[in-house]
Amino acid sequence: MILPIYTYGNAVLRKVAEPIKADYPHLKSLISNMFDTMYHAEGVGLAAPQIGQAIRLLVIDLAPFKEDDPELGAFKVVMINPQMLERSEEEVVGEEGCLSIPGIHETVSRSLKIKIKYQDENFFEWVEEFESYKARVIQHEYDHLEGNLFTDKVTPIRRQLLKSKLTNIVKGKTSTSYKVKSA
């Protein structure tokens, strides 16, 4: 089932998400719905707060990049209760966008490498290291679980320049090809 994506200005996007347990109601269908929603919106990552659920759950599928990089194309993951263990001091700059902030793309600096602990959809625990684009996408989605958005990471002058666009998103004056829930 395709769910509406909560856009900039919704309070749930600023909440620190809560951990969940294996008996969380309808978890398998929630994960499936998150993938369906993400695919429908042509995204590569989606965190539960983006669909109005303040829980520590995110999904990523980098299949759209399989033509450019088969390793990225094979990367599909569900992360439950992720905890960032390490971030490299070395950072890399790249352009980001977000399904919750439609129409805005900005340059953001992220750690090149990360180490993260999480549980998969069967609640098996993993501790893994990721780098480059995988690390960027994970950090972006992880930020949602911490109540942060990629626009928080842009320079103050860029944020000022984005102010009217962000205000329009809050007011529901934005066009998307997917269902949204404005503030």
Short description:
With 183 residues, this protein is an alpha+beta fold. It is 26% helix and 31% strand.
What structural keywords apply?
9 strands
Task: Please describe what this structure looks like.
- The strands form three sheets. Strands 2-3-4-7-8 form a five-stranded antiparallel beta sheet, with helices on both faces.
- Helices cover 26% and strands 31% of the residues.
- The model has no long low-confidence stretch (mean pLDDT 97).
- It is α+β, with helices and mostly antiparallel strands.
- The longest helix is centred in the last third of the chain and has 15 residues, at 156-170.
- The relative contact order is 0.22.
Please outline the major beta sheet: 5 strands, antiparallel
Taken in chain order, the helices and strands follow as EHEEHEEEEEHHE
* Overall pLDDT confidence: 97
In CATH's first tier, which class applies? Alpha Beta
DSSP helix fraction:
25-40%
Secondary structure class reads alpha+beta
Q: State the strand order across the main sheet.
A: 2-3-4-7-8
- Low-pLDDT runs of 5+ residues are none
**Silhouette:** globular
Tally of extended strands? 9
Gap between N and C termini: 22 Å
Number of structural domains:
1
- Full CATH superfamily name: Peptide deformylase
Task: Indicate the CATH topology.
Answer: Peptide Deformylase
> How many distinct helices?
4
CATH architecture assignment name: Alpha-Beta Complex
Q: Classify the beta-strand content into a percent band.
A: 25-35%
Round the Cα radius of gyration to an integer and report it.
16 Å
